[in-house]
Specification:
Elements lengths: L7 H4 L25 H4 L4 H15 L4 E6 L1 H4 L4 E6 H8 L6 H8 L1
Antiparallel strand pairs: 1-2
C-alpha cells in the first residue's frame, strides 16, 4: 500500500481517490469516437474494428444501419433489423441495450 500511496482512508472511501476521465461517460456525437481515445487501443480486435467503422459511417451523417437476418436465425423469414448508432454507444459504455442490438448480437 505504501508503494502506490494507498491509505486506509482511501480504501474506506474517506479520502479522495483519483478517477480516470475515461471512467465518465463520453457524450454521443455523430462522427466522433464512441469512447475516450486512450481507451480505444485496449478494445478487443473486433470491437475496435466496429468502433472504427461506426466512427467513419457516422461522420457521413448516417444515424442508423441495417443488419439482415436469415430465416434460420429466428425462423420467421428473412428480414432486416435497423440499429441506431447511439445504441452502439450504449454498448461501448455498457449501458442499457436496445432490443434490436441484442437480437443482432444473439445471431
Amino acid at each position: 500500500m505504501a508503494k502506490i500511496g494507498l491509505t486506509k482512508a482511501k480504501l474506506e472511501g474517506k479520502g479522495k481517490v483519483p478517477v480516470h476521465e475515461g471512467a465518465g461517460r463520453k457524450p454521443f456525437v455523430l462522427g466522433q469516437p464512441l469512447m475516450w481515445p486512450e481507451l480505444i487501443d485496449r478494445l478487443p480486435t473486433r470491437m475496435r474494428e466496429l468502433h472504427n467503422w461506426c466512427t467513419k459511417y457516422s461522420s457521413e451523417g448516417n444515424i442508423m444501419f441495417v443488419a439482415r437476418i436469415k430465416d434460420s436465425h429466428f425462423h420467421r423469414g428473412m428480414d432486416d433489423v435497423w440499429i441506431e448508432l447511439v445504441n452502439l454507444w450504449d454498448l461501448y459504455h455498457q449501458d442499457a441495450l436496445d432490443k434490436s442490438l441484442l437480437s443482432t448480437f444473439c445471431m
